[in-house]
Structure formats: C-alpha cells, structure tokens
C-alpha cells in the first residue's frame, strides 16, 4: 500500500482533523500479520465510543475498499483528499473516511460527522504563502531538531516527531513545507543548514 512514513502521516492528519471536530482519538499502529489494517483508531465523544480499522491510501480505489471492509470492525479510510463524489460512494457502502484537509464522514453511537467540499490541497513547488509558515513555533521545533541531529534527516517521521516533541502530523507538515521551499531533509547541504540556522537565530532574536 504505502510506506510507513506515508501511513503515519495520513493517520496523524486524520486524527488532527477529528480532534478539531471534538472527537478524542487514540491510535495504535498494527504490526501483526494477522491484522490487515494499517492502524486501529479508538474514537470517543461524550459517552459514545467506537474502534475503527484504519486503512491509509494515497489514492482511494473502491475495489480496494470493498476488499478491506469484510471484517467485524468498522472501516475508516484516510487519504490526502477525498472528492465529494468518492465520499458519497464510500458513505453508500458504509465506510467512514477522513482526509487531510478535513472532509469526513464518521458515524458511531450518537455521533455524526459529515464534512464535504473542502478543496484538494494545492500542488506545485512555488508556494510562498505556505513557505512563510515555516516560521511557526511548531515548524521551528522540527527544523531545530533536524539541525541538532543530522541522523534525523533519514529517520522516520515518528522518530523526528519524538525528537521535536510534536505530533507525527506536524512533523509531516514541516517536512512538506521544507521540501516545497527546496530543502529536502534527506539531502541537506551545509549551505542550507547554515541558512536554516540563520533564520531560527533571527526569529529567536526578535522574540527575545
């Protein structure tokens, strides 16, 4: 399906979006070959609780979804973006979903979340507005961790997130913003390291 870091990024982004809707979520990443899901997510809102089998898909195909929905545990599909048309098809076959921009269809107990119409994330290397967000406190923590430990340049997103003390979803966002600005964490050169360090120092000096 997807690489480990892609799975984690999609699952953590979905958890972040559900948190924005007031749902408390805990995630367990599955490693047993007996478990077909990428993760399980326990959701709670008030007195309602439900555990979902989570399947992370970079591109959602109904044929794959039909295969994974045969278990007793409700299925939750997480993806970068799910169109209104695809969302309607998933709802029709009783499958929940959450994408990285917040489109969602989740039902359990008395809880009903239905969000549709949020646009596909922008693409392309030239995104100056997004690059400006590299100066946010959370992004700076991830950058600082990368600069402090070069081994993190090739570590998993989970390891990077732990070192920076942020969520995996946040680590993924920072890495994506860096890549959009031309700073690919698996091949920083000395000039790029010095440039990033200079930016962090300048921002810190302004805040002191």
Explain how this protein is built:
With 208 residues, this protein is α/β, with parallel strands linked by helices. The protein has 2 domains: 4-115, Trna Endonuclease, Chain: A, domain 1 (3-Layer(aba) Sandwich), CATH 3.40.1350; 128-203, no CATH class. It is 43% helix and 20% strand. The protein contains 8 helices and 7 strands, in the order H-E-E-E-H-E-H-E-E-E-H-H-H-H-H. It has helices at 4-20, 62-68, 84-92, 128-132, 137-148, 157-164, 168-180, 190-207, and strands at residues 24-29, 39-45, 48-56, 75-79, 96-99, 104-108, 111-115. A 7-stranded mixed β-sheet has the order 1-2-3-4-5-6-7. Strand 5 and strand 6 (104-108) form a beta hairpin. Helix 6 packs across helix 7. The longest helix has 18 residues, at 190-207. The termini are far apart.
């Amino acid at each position: 399906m997807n690489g480990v870091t892609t799975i984690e990024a999609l699952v953590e982004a979905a958890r972040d979006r559900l948190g924005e809707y007031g749902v408390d979520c805990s995630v367990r990443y599955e490693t047993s070959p007996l478990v077909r899901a990428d993760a399980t997510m326990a959701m709670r809102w008030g007195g309602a609780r439900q555990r979902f089998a989570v399947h992370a898909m970079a591109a959602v195909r109904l044929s794959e979804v039909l295969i994974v929905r045969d278990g007793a545990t409700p299925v939750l599909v997480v993806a970068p973006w799910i169109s209104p048309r695809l969302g309607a098809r998933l709802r029709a076959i009783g499958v929940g979903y959450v994408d990285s921009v917040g489109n969602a269809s989740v039902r359990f107990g008395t809880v009903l979340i239905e969000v549709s119409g949020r646009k596909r994330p922008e693409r392309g290397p030239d995104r100056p507005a997004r690059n400006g967000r590299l100066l946010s406190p959370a992004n700076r923590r991830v950058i600082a961790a990368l600069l402090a430990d070069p081994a993190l340049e090739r570590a998993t997103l989970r390891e990077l997130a732990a070192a920076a003390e942020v969520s995996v979803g946040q680590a993924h966002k920072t890495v994506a913003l860096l890549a959009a600005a031309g700073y690919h964490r698996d091949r920083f050169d000395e000039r790029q390291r010095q440039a990033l360090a200079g930016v962090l120092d300048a921002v810190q000096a302004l805040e002191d």
